């Protein structure tokens, strides 16, 4: 079935102002047209902001228990439609069934978590001089622009829309043009849960629509997950008067020491590197192994990689297609760059058919190679040798990014040394670089994040979506 998608603006499902549309096709089968969706521009965004601006006072005044109940009901709606959503997610993005099932089950849990946050918008009191009472009030800041990626098109938007709405803000949502249907489904769930139609707007489209969201100064804050290049452009566009939350790229290492269980290390490396076809910001892209076990570990990783089945996500496979022709071009480009730089292609590196490729492992890489410096966002893994723990830590930190890092070791002392020395926002021990607890903060160092407000959970989560007003109250003048 082909979907005819819409924008949602001023309480109505409507086409783009220009009438232009774009297509989204199944990455596993280019002949399968998933749907056509509005190709929005600055006029659509302006209309959305006009409507959100009018609705903002009423939604801000909505009691927190009502906001919480709406998020809970939206979660119920998603859970009730899980089977359909799994099939649509496989078809639209190319996820495997296991990956799609995990995301569809996680998203309602996110909304329930943020429903609880609606009740915790508490201020604080401070000692005042004489009869004066000094206290703070936390208030919604206005319109939130949420610009989200395609690789987790339900999970990541729910981590932005959930807290924004819980805090009493109206939301302008611009999902990726690669997964527009999932963006529409999330808005439908919120409306089915009882969200006032004026409290949210959905604008479909590509980068020009996203730029218009950032460019409208009535948008009080922008939360973005995506590439570092786009994130930096958003940061420049926001300026100092408005808020921005950026979660960007990664070049995530797994360090393996001589005392590691190599079978366990190989399993978590392959899972972290090739899950979601390598298209995850926390995905493992580098393995740094000490000399004593480098070759043995490489052999085990290659054996597991070559055993991975690749095919359409609705079949029993370990890895689905890349999400778009642009992702395929990037994959092939970096395979060529690695070979030109002198790295050794150990396995993979080839296109099978359409957007399907074999997961790829390079060895004999050296610092400065683009295999080690650039975020490829595809199923490409690069091995590095280290002479010692200190050498491995130095190599792990030798990147402009700082999102996630892992170490595999039985030595608790070395684990703690790595935790202390790693310049990343997420550090994992004997675990893949991927996979996060929903009740823990998420964010990176260096070019991986703005490092201002953490996403997902933690004490700074709701602060991004709220203004803090300090009140001085005296009984009389």
Looking at this protein, list some descriptive labels.
5-stranded parallel β-sheet, alpha/beta, 477 residues
Short structural description:
The chain has 477 residues and is of the alpha/beta class. It is built from 14 helices and 24 strands.
Rg, Å, rounded: 23 Å
Overall 3D geometry? globular
Look at the structure and give the mean pLDDT. Answer: 96
Strand content: 15-25%
Helix tally? 14
Strand order of the largest sheet: 15-18-19-14-13-21-22
The counted number of beta strands is 24
Q: Report the span from N to C terminus.
A: 69 Å
Low-confidence blocks of residues = none
Can you summarize the main beta sheet? 7 strands, mixed
By helix and strand content, what is the structural category? alpha/beta
Share of helical residues: 25-40%
Tell me about this structure.
The structure is a single chain. This protein has 477 residues and is α/β, with parallel strands linked by helices. The protein has 14 helices and 24 strands. It has helices spanning 42-60, 64-80, 82-93, 97-117, 155-166, 180-192, 207-215, 228-238, 262-274, 291-307, 325-340, 370-373, 389-397, 412-421; strands at 3-4, 7-9, 12-14, 21-26, 29-38, 125-126, 133-140, 143-147, 170-174, 200-202, 219-225, 243-247, 252-256, 284-290, 344-347, 351-353, 356-357, 360-363, 380-386, 401-402, 404-408, 426-429, 445-446, 466-473. The strands form 7 sheets. It has a 7-stranded mixed sheet, with helices on both faces. Strands 10-9-8-11-12 form a 5-stranded parallel sheet, sandwiched between helices. Strands 1-5-4 form a 3-stranded mixed sheet, covered by helices on one side. The N and C termini lie far apart (69 Å). The mean pLDDT is 96.
